[in-house]
Design a protein that fits this description.
With about 1700 residues, this protein is of the alpha+beta class. The protein is about 35% helix and about 30% strand.
Length: about 1700
């Protein structure tokens, strides 16, 4: 497996080099050449001469010559490049060899360096070991001297201690010597390996030099190729320069043609302008006439609306009367219903029934009747609504058909029109317009001198001109037919069609369509295909996107330049198509077509605008590109005024009568046109007024003024807001009328300028409109129409001029004269009729008290009892003389509140300060009476300021919230109980702030053994807040404690807390009582170590602290035992948990933390996931069933009922899985565990593990059960265990962190892949722990970097060497967490048992027939075994083995050939089934061997190998068999022939030859050797045997049995031979054994062997004869001795 891995890595390196080598091979095709500079220089020089000569020539002939020569030069260039490509280069295979050789040499050098480092490190270790050995030897000598001294002195204790130390040093010295020998041996081996590597380096020295030479040659070839490329680029640059020259010449010619076309277009435009002006003048006269008629209609419509308003008023009054009547009727009906209910109850009660039940049934019956009546009414209304909708749809369909017929007629008429007539009429209109002054021209949207635009001026469309409110009112009252009518009528025949439709496309749009159609016919658009998709976006973008000429002046010339950018992905071109028809007289375009524009490049367009009229123009500039047309919008905006106020309400506030206050308001013009303005009060009494005496001075009621009327007409009352929104009137822009702007509710419609002149409505109409809201107006303040306020007036600036982009400040002055509220309305009107009037309001309040306080309410905020609070009250005087003031406090609060001084004088127009002192006592709730609210703790105390000389006073109110300053500690006493000196005991107290003010607190004078947290006992308590404090007590020695803790507040109040405790000194102590583990990932392990110490070695309390409980007895000196009790569900392990510590010693404790997910949590999540999956599956099944049910048409109600009930039964049958039934190895459990692990947000667990302590030895088995321990001596170990989500998780094998290889055969290797994933949002760098280098596990492929969300695979191999279990831990380390993989595997030694020992004899078989035999192999090991069957006859090395000396030449002991005679047909004689497979542990496999010879031979043989895992041979069997052409055989004796056949095939003999052979003598001989043992014992004859058999075959199934007989029997008997069966018969398939024995006769000579011949005849279908040679000799039984 390792070899395979190495070859695989080399194969990967070759594969990684393939792209680089292929690139080099492609570059080689360009040519590695030398001495090429001269051809390139000649070629470049010739090309430059040809191009220069072509540049000096002119006209078309010269350009043609240049093209011919450049073409010829390119041919020569290609020819030269072909010659260069044909030059010799370094071969591709050579470069591959060089790269591989370089890599191998580099690896060899790295191995050599590494081995040198290893040798150096080993030498350092050896020197260190020798120094240590010398040091130990010196120390041993020193100890011997010390031991002699101590023995001489008679100090036995010191002598024994030194002897123990000497033994330890001796042991260390022996270890160091052993280590020195091992290191020396290792150093010797490393030196030998290093010498071998250096020898290898010497072998490859010549190759290294050759490689350096090849690299230099390769670098030279690279430089030559670079030069060739530079020459080629120069030639291409020269050709590009020539192409640029020809392109510039073509552009010059195109420019001249463009200028000529431009001149012609200008002349046409002038002629068209003259014609258009003429036509438009005549059209405008007719338009004015139509406008006058339309104004008359609007006036009549307004009169109708006024009458409608009056009728509405009367209807409202009548509806109110009806409403009152209806309410009275409902009350009477309700009263009757109640009376009827009472009577019904009395009747039911008299009948003995249930009153409540009867009444309820009666109510339900009435309710049911009402519902039925309502349902009938709804059905009736719905029917009427449906009928109305049907009628509307019919009317709309009829209207559409009518409009379509009209549209067709217009289209047919427009086809006959002449565009020249349009332009002539446009020019006539322009001339007529330009003859008028600019100011008299009405401001409206300039569209087109066509019928559509003219009609739009009278009846604007939806898209062009918004409808005025007057038009809207008129259209609401007209018929639908009047809405469809238009005022566009033909004035000149041929100019417009007889009919016009507003939905008809305008003339300019028609011209554009025609123009684009003509362009499309001439141009062929090319589609752009980008990434397989057609690019349909806009190909050219303009910068800026819109051409905007803003604030222009008539007569000036404006120019703007735009840039067209090619935004497509390929080369494109564009040209100018034209501009909008109505802009041709004002806009000119200068655009030179740039030709081909690359992607991202741009071209410039110059747009010139020469305004002739003061109108806003809109249109577009049209271009045509290869991919289609596009346009750039163009807009020309005239100067205008944009006026606004910074505020609409000026609030002066409260002021004393006689003062003067001024405020400013800013009028801003953000437009480019200036105008004059005039500020004036709004006309009428409603604009300015004063509240009557009914309203108080402190309250101001402001009515809403929303309507503005002309200044000459006055309305007595404000208009209703509702009518104002619907009927706002917008005056015509005539010089006589003064405009006004109505301020309605937010979101109400805004009025715009109207194109018609409308007279103002009558005053009576406005009065009738305002009278609708008289009832609501009664709740507002009443204003006197006779009074006109002069308190709020304008300043110096009342009119003037506001310039463009400037602002003006307007002053408003308030001079209060009479106490009360004042309001004034102002309006700003402008000379520019397009500017709407602006309105604003001013309000103020006047008071008449000469003394006043800035704040009549003195707020002392929150005050505490027994604390002094002060404030200053400032009194201001408005009077012109000195005033005397007296300050008084109510009698109830005289003990708590005081004003100093009690009397004072305030100067004229000055102020006076009074000091207020407030010291609340605890008796304040009883003394204050009604001024203090005990529940809210609010105090409202009246304070009076009296004017002594005048009978006036000023009232003040002092507000305060009085609270306590107590702090409450609960509980008041703490008993900490028993506390060891190694730990701290914590108790919690509740500190409560009873005040509604925040208070600072602090515990002062704390003893050294007490600590208070948080913030060391200091802090701030919010109002009524409770804070939990931790009182931590840590005893410093064993005694009884009693002490008090003092808490002080910020006002120096003290609160006591008493405490008690008992200090305990246990016999044992922990080195660390707190263990803080690092953040540990799930299924990872964090380990910490600590010690259990026993420092109790003396009972003297004066020398050191002794273990005791409080002031009790001292613990005895001796061994102390401990036991840690870990909770069951705690993920913490402590080892050892039980132990004994001797005095003065310590015991090591290891604490491990392994966080895992709760099993119950995983099961619940698994159940949830299963339920969701089941619900989804049920929904899918239900939807499928519903679909099937809908397809089938139910014929009976029974089938429908069954189909509707079927889903219910299915839903009831499903049962929710139980979490206890899930197995930990199930897929649902694993999926839930992986999901929870990925979504784990982290947790922090805190565990306190008790450690019980007792005096004496603890039994390892029974623990500390036999010891008595005090609970007060218990130690506590606190563990902080943070668990976090792992950065890396295992995604393979359902997320298991265990890699189990299972059973693996010893000596074999097995690999497994583990997939890990980075589930953190950061990039991770991984590290791995080192596995045992001598162990069976190996990390084959590691991962060093993981991107977020990336999956990578680790490969781990297991190759066991012993028959045992192996287990190791592999830590995958990251910067934050670790992932631990548990790797296990079992090495198993394979063992099998075969049913056949060594040889499997197939016996005799008829040639060209088959016989089978079966043997069994059983797997007795614990793992499944992969096997394969191998035959030596099919071995790939058999041909090579046959070239050796034949086996029959060598002795039988030297023969290693087991393959005997084989078939002539090339097929194997022996075949086995199965040849490969796997045997399960404890099972057996039957193998069938088939013997199929194709000719006669007695020496068929082969060897079978049973191989495990392709390596280990478990069993070897020799296969034997014999084949006969005849169904009889004789076996036995010593073989007389060679067991190897000739390769030549003997031709079959004829039947006559066979007959002759049968008549002749025997064809085979059999030698039987009998050896008689001559010894002292009883004589036993020498014996041997022959086997005569009959083969059972299908060819001779009907023949007789085989008979045999011996001849020459007398001679055999004479010579001492005896045969058991002289004659006999052998049945088919049987074998007859014939025994032969020999006893030497009396005249036998022992020196000469005896040889007798006899004839054995076999008779069957065919007769056979065998010559049997009986050889006998006497052998001595004694072994000769030397």
């Amino acid at each position: 497996m390792e070899d395979n891995g190495i070859s695989y890595s080399e194969e990967e390196e070759q594969r990684s080099l393939v792209p680089f080598l292929e690139e080099e091979e492609k570059e080689d095709q360009g040519g590695w050449f030398s001495d090429v500079e001269e051809p390139w220089e000649d070629l470049e020089y010739k090309l430059e001469e040809e191009l220069a000569g072509g540049g000096r020539k002119g006209n078309k002939d010269a350009s043609g010559g240049i093209q011919d020569k450049s073409y010829f030069s390119m041919e020569r260039l290609e020819h030269c490049l072909d010659n260069i490509n044909n030059m010799q280069t370094m071969k591709h295979n050579d470069r591959i060899y060089s790269s591989v050789l370089q890599k191998n040499l580099k690896e060899l050098n790295d191995i050599a360096k590494e081995k040198q480092l290893v040798v150096q490190k080993t030498r350092d270790n050896l020197s260190t070991c020798r120094l240590q050995t010398e040091m130990l030897a010196k120390q041993l000598q020193y100890m011997d001297i010390e031991i002699e001294k101590e023995e001489a002195a008679g100090n036995v204790a010191a002598s024994s201690r030194l002897q123990a130390a000497r033994r330890r040093v001796c042991a260390e010295l022996e270890k160091e010597k052993d280590s020195e020998l091992e290191i020396a041996l290792t150093l010797k081996q490393d030196m030998l390996e290093m010498w071998k590597i250096e020898t290898e380096q010497g072998k490859y020295e010549t190759l290294r030099q050759q490689l350096e030479t090849d690299e230099e040659e390769l670098e030279t070839q690279y430089q030559e190729r670079a030069k060739a490329r530079i020459q080629k680029e120069k030639i291409v640059a020269l050709q590009a320069e020539e192409n640029q020259r020809s392109r510039e010449k073509k552009e010059e010619e195109a420019q001249k043609e463009h200028e000529e076309r431009q001149k012609k277009m200008l002349e046409d435009a002038k002629r068209n302008h003259e014609k258009a002006v003429c036509f438009l003048r005549k059209s405008m006269a007719r338009i004015h006439e139509e406008n006058a008629k339309e104004e008359e209609r609007a006036r009549e419509h307004m009169e109708r609306r006024i009458q409608a308003v009056l009728s509405l008023k009367t209807s409202i009054a009548s509806s109110r009367e009806k409403l009152r009547t209806l309410q009275a009727w409902k009350r009477a009906k309700a009263l009757a219903a109640r009376e009827q209910e009472v009577r019904m109850g009395e009747a039911v009660l008299a009948g003995g029934g249930n009153v409540a039940k009867e009444i309820l049934l009666h109510k339900q019956l009435l309710q049911h009747e009402k519902q039925q009546q309502a349902c009938r009414e709804r059905q009736k209304s719905r029917k009427m609504e449906i009928v109305s909708r049907i009628l509307q749809e019919k009317a709309s369909i009829h209207k559409q058909k009518k409009s379509q017929s009209r549209t067709k007629a217009i289209k047919s008429a427009r086809k006959l029109e002449d565009p020249g007539v349009w332009r002539r009429r446009a020019w006539q209109y322009i001339e007529q317009t330009c003859s008028h002054p600019a100011g008299a021209t009405p401001q409206k949207s300039w569209r087109s001198p066509s019928a559509c635009s003219s009609a739009g001026e009278r009846s604007p469309s939806v898209e062009e001109v918004p409808k005025t409110p007057c038009d809207a009112l008129w259209e609401r009252g007209e018929d639908e037919k009047e809405k469809d009518k238009t005022l566009a009528e033909p004035e000149f025949p041929g100019l417009w069609s007889q009919e016009h439709d507003l939905r008809k496309i305008s003339k300019e749009e028609t011209d554009l369509k025609k123009l684009s159609t003509r362009t499309e016919k001439k141009e062929i658009f090319h589609k752009q295909i980008v990434s397989g998709h057609e690019y349909k976006e806009r190909t050219f973008y303009s910068k800026p996107s819109c051409i905007h000429f803003k604030d222009f002046d008539v007569g000036q010339i404006y120019k703007k330049k735009i840039v067209l950018i090619n935004a497509s992905y390929s080369v494109n071109s564009c040209r100018l198509v034209g501009i909008s028809e109505w802009l041709k007289d004002f806009i000119s375009i200068c655009f030179d077509p740039p030709g081909k524009v690359c992607a991202g490049m741009s071209c410039e367009v110059l747009v010139t605008f020469k305004p002739m009229i003061n109108e806003t123009l809109e249109g577009e500039v049209m271009f045509m590109a290869q991919t289609g047309s596009f346009s750039v919008p163009l807009k020309c905006t005239a100067k205008r005024c944009i006026l606004a106020l910074d505020k609409e309400l000026i609030d002066f506030g409260n002021h004393v009568v006689g003062e003067t206050i001024s405020r400013t308001i800013t009028l801003t013009n953000s437009g480019a046109l200036g105008t004059r303005f005039r500020v004036q009060p709004s006309a009428g009494d409603s604009s300015t007024g004063r509240a009557t005496a009914k309203s108080s001075p402190e309250t101001l009621v402001t009515p809403s003024f929303s309507a503005c009327v002309p200044e000459k007409k006055v309305s007595t009352r404000p208009a209703a807001p509702g009518l104002e929104e619907e009927e706002q009137m917008c005056p015509e822009r005539s010089e006589a009328a003064t405009g006004c702007a109505g301020r309605g509710e937010p979101g109400g419609p805004e009025t715009g300028p109207s194109g018609t002149d409308t007279e103002q409505p009558d005053q009576n109409v406005l009065n009738s409109m305002s009278a609708l809201d008289t009832e609501n107006a009664q709740n507002l303040a009443e204003f006197s129409p006779e009074e006109t306020s002069v308190e709020i007036m304008l300043g110096k600036v009342a009119e003037g001029e506001i310039r463009p982009l400037s602002s003006v400040k307007l002053e408003v002055v308030f001079v209060p004269a009479v106490p009360g509220a004042v309001r004034a309305e102002f309006v700003i009107v402008f000379d520019n009729s397009d500017c709407k009037p602006l309105c604003f309001s001013a309000i103020g309040v006047s008071v008449d008290v000469p003394v006043w306080v800035p704040d009549p309410n003195v707020d002392l905020k929150i005050c505490m009892y027994d604390r002094l609070y002060q404030d200053c009250i400032v009194v201001h005087s408005r009077a012109k003389v000195l005033l005397r003031l007296k300050f008084e406090v109510c009698k109830e609060l005289s003990k708590h509140m005081e004003l100093l001084p009690k009397t004072g004088y305030v100067q004229a127009q000055s102020s006076f300060s009074v000091q207020l002192k407030f010291l609340p006592r605890h008796s304040l709730p009883e003394d204050a009476g009604s001024y203090f609210n005990a529940e809210t703790r609010v105090l409202e105390a009246p304070v009076t300021i009296l004017l002594v000389d005048k009978a006036k006073k000023v009232n003040l109110t002092v507000h305060a919230i009085v609270t306590t300053s107590d702090l409450e500690i609960s509980p008041a006493q703490i008993n900490f109980g028993y506390c060891t000196i190694y730990e701290a005991v914590q108790a919690n107290v509740m500190l409560t702030n009873k005040s509604i003010l925040p208070q600072e607190f602090g515990f002062v004078g704390l003893p050294e053994f007490v600590e208070i947290q948080p913030n060391d006992g200091f802090g701030i308590l919010l109002p009524l807040e409770s804070l939990t404090l931790d009182i931590i007590f840590k005893a410093n020695k064993a005694k009884e404690y009693s002490f008090e803790l003092t808490c002080k507040s910020e006002i120096n109040r003290q609160f006591k807390l008493s405490c008690k405790a008992v200090g305990v000194h246990p016999p044992l102590e922990l080195s660390h009582s707190l263990v803080q583990f690092a953040a540990t990932a799930l299924n990872a392990v964090s380990t910490a170590t600590l010690y259990v110490l026993n420092s109790h070695v003396s009972v003297n309390p004066f020398t050191r602290a002794v273990p005791r409980i409080g002031s009790g007895d001292v613990a005895p000196v001796g061994p102390a035992s401990f036991e840690f009790h870990v909770p069951e569900d705690c993920p913490v392990t402590i080892a050892p948990s039980v132990g004994t510590v001797l005095p003065g010693e310590k015991s090591l404790i290891q604490v491990s933390f392994r966080p895992t997910l709760s099993d119950q949590l995983i099961r619940e999540e698994a159940v949830r996931r299963l339920c969701r999956a089941a619900a989804t599956e049920a929904e899918i099944q239900k939807s499928k069933k519903d679909e099937k049910r809908e397809r089938k048409k139910s014929n009976s109600s029974i089938s429908r009922l069954q189909s509707s009930r079927q889903p219910v039964r299915d839903g009831d049958s499903s049962e929710q899985p139980k979490s206890q039934e899930l197995k930990p190895d199930s897929d649902a459990y694993m999926a839930a565990q992986a999901f929870l692990m990925r979504n784990f947000s982290g947790r922090f667990d805190k565990f306190i593990i008790p450690c019980f302590v007792a005096s004496g030895h603890a039994d390892e088995k029974k623990g500390s059960e036999n010891l008595s321990c005090s609970p007060y001596n218990t130690l506590y170990l606190e563990l902080h265990c943070p668990a976090v989500a792992p950065c890396v998780v295992v995604t393979s094998d359902n997320g298991k962190n265990t890699v189990n290889f299972g059973d693996v055969t010893v000596g074999h290797s097995m690999r497994k892949q583990v997939t890990i994933q980075n589930i953190s949002p950061e990039k991770l760098q991984l590290g791995f722990s080192v596995l045992n280098p001598r162990g069976p596990f190996l990390l084959v492929r590691a991962v060093r970097m993981l991107e977020p969300g990336e999956n990578k695979t680790l490969i781990i191999s297991f190759c066991p060497n012993d028959d045992k279990w192996s287990c190791e831990m592999l830590d995958i380390r990251t910067a934050k967490t670790n992932l631990t993989l548990r790797i296990t595997g079992h090495g198993v030694m394979p063992s099998t048992v075969c049913s056949v020992e060594d040889v499997l004899d197939m016996g005799y078989v008829m040639a060209r027939e088959k016989v089978t035999s079966t043997f069994k192999i059983q797997n007795t090991s614990t793992l499944a075994l992969r096997y394969s069957i191998q035959l030596d006859s099919l071995s790939p090395t058999r041909d090579k083995d046959q070239q050796r000396i034949p086996s029959f030449i060598m002795s039988s002991s030297q023969r290693t050939e087991f393959v005997g005679t084989q078939n002539y047909n090339g097929l194997s004689v022996f075949s086995i089934f199965p040849t490969e497979g796997e045997i399960v542990a404890g099972k057996s496999q039957d193998f069938t061997v088939t013997f199929s010879p194709d000719h006669e031979s007695l020496y068929y043989s082969d060897r079978l190998r049973f191989v495990l895992f392709g390596k280990q041979t478990a069993h070897v069997l020799r296969l034997k068999g014999a084949a006969r052409d005849r169904p009889m055989f004789v076996e036995g004796g010593v073989p007389l022939d060679v067991p190897v056949e000739s390769l030549a095939v003997i031709a079959p003999t004829s039947s006559q030859d066979t007959l002759k052979e049968e008549l002749q003598g025997p064809v085979k001989s059999i030698l039987l050797v009998l050896e008689y043992m001559d010894g002292e014992g009883p004589a036993e004859p020498a014996t041997t045997e022959l086997k005569v058999g009959a083969i059972q075959t299908a060819q001779f199934a009907s023949k007789k049995n085989v008979e045999f007989s011996f001849d020459n029997l007398p001679l055999l008997r004479q010579k001492g031979f005896a045969i058991d069966s002289v004659k006999g018969t052998v049945e088919c398939g049987q074998v007859k054994r014939i025994g032969v024995s020999w006893v030497p006769p009396a005249d036998f000579c022992a020196d000469d062997p005896l040889l007798v011949t006899a004839l054995l005849t076999l008779k069957g279908d065919i007769n056979e004869s065998y010559q049997v040679l009986f050889m006998a000799r006497v052998v001595s039984a004694y072994t000769p001795t030397e």
